[in-house]
Amino acid sequence: MNTQIDIQQLKQSPVFQNIGEERLENFLNDAPHSLKSYNKQDLIVMQGERCRSLYMLYSGKVQAVMTHPDGKELVVEVLEAPVAVAPILLFGSKDKFPVSLIAVSAVEIIVINKDKFLRWMQEDVQLMQNFLRIISDRSVWLTEKINSFALQSLEMRLAHYLFFHSESPESQSDIAKRLGVARPSLNRVVSGLVDKGVITIQKRKIVVSDSDKLKDIMHGI
Asked: At 81, is the pLDDT very low, low, confident or very high (cuts 50, 70, 90)?
């Protein structure tokens, strides 16, 4: 077994939930794998690459960024260890990454052989149930993501984002990338929320000043 990998830390991942230590150690001994390290801002996977292995984010944070042909970028999500990266692609007929993975901090990723992981799922019902649950949850998350983009106004989307990320305020440029909108469009909505007393701008960061009004906007009230 790779002594660099802490079994207790790996067990925190939903993939290995309720898997015994001995079982997990046997798996790592049996399945070809490697532990790769990346620095902040390193490109881990490029959009369009094939997903040939199971990528386990062992430590650190990565962001999934979708780049459009016109150069615009959309930050789809930020992943924090320990989780599987793009598990929904692993056994799909279309197995190319729709996003690039970029390190937000120092990152370690365990790359596990796809065929060995499949064999282990066939032999371990708990592991198979874990993986199926993860894929199902991802499908629901993607549906909700589509709903938030297609059915909600930009003001509602921004309110929803700010409500769940108020503890770590970001610049308007960063938020525009996360929501996949042009900066001028976001600026207009931000100005409107400032006029309503919902938010303030402090050192170029958006800060929520009235969470009750923000909730009303989230629910279209």
From this structure: very high
